[in-house]
Amino acid sequence: MKNIKAEPFDFSFNPATSALIIIDMQRDFVEPNGFGELLGNDVALLRSTIEPCRKVLQAARAAGLMVIHTREGHRADLTDCPPAKLTRGGKTVIGSAGPMGRILVRGEQGHDIIPELYPIAGEPVIDKPGKGAFYQTDLHLILQSRGIKSLIICGVTTEVCVNTTAREANDRGYECLILDDCTASYFPEFHQAALDMIKAQGGIVGWVSSSAELVSTLAK
Ligand code: TIU
Q: Measured from the CB, is residue 94 less than 6 Å from ligand 1?
């Protein structure tokens, strides 16, 4: 067992039954000209997560943790995109043409994971149609098949896909540790509030720690 300094109290996990899950570090959210920027957001706020995520990914691979990546996106014909999701976002409509291909459509450049954090062989990539990584995916089946009990969560954005996934995971019985500097929001105040909500009430949704704590704990 490993013990990591976290809030609201130390988080204990067995690396053999833990997975690192990196949420939606896709070009559409993190790079200029993607969905996030076209929605009017400053992607620089998210790019601060790349280097800490890279270090955590490297440490997790070295420690033999299961690593899972997710991508938000839809089928090319958008048959898996709820109409309600298609009508929001102003001019930036999912499926419309952007500089990195059709927005949030599978197979397009913008939909893919950024090169800095690109998956390697043996790391499942979960394509999800929603904000939560469990909704209409085989993530739970994959985690159960490997006997995974704890999730270390990184990625973007804190209050949208990270928070939704942590809540879905918590309700399914997984213990979740979110790494503060490996997650970010286009709204810094939402980032802080989202983490506060996770760790409040004695860890009602999970625990919060940092990339440095995780890297040093895995190296011990
Ligand atoms: N991955 C994820 O969080 N999807 C979003 O749409 N996030 C926004 O903050 N827009």
A: no
Q: How far apart are CA 46 and CA 158, in angstroms?
A: 10
Six-digit token string for 144: 């159960």
Specify whether the CB–CB gap between 218 and 187 falls below 8 A.
Answer: no
* Token pair listed for 66: 């299961």
Q: How far is the CA of 171 from the centre of ligand 1 (A)?
A: 21
The pLDDT tens digits for 80-111 are 999 988 888 777 789 999 999 999 999 999 99
Distance 156 CA to ligand 1 centre (A): 7
Domain coordinates in residue numbering, the chain? 2-219
Residue 196's Cβ-count burial label (10 Å; 0-12, 13-18, 19+) is exposed
> Tell me, which fold does domain 2-219 have in CATH?
Rossmann fold (3.40.50)
Cα gap 40→61, rounded to integer Å: 35
Beta strands at 66-72 and 18-23: parallel, antiparallel or unpaired: parallel
pTM of the model: 0.98
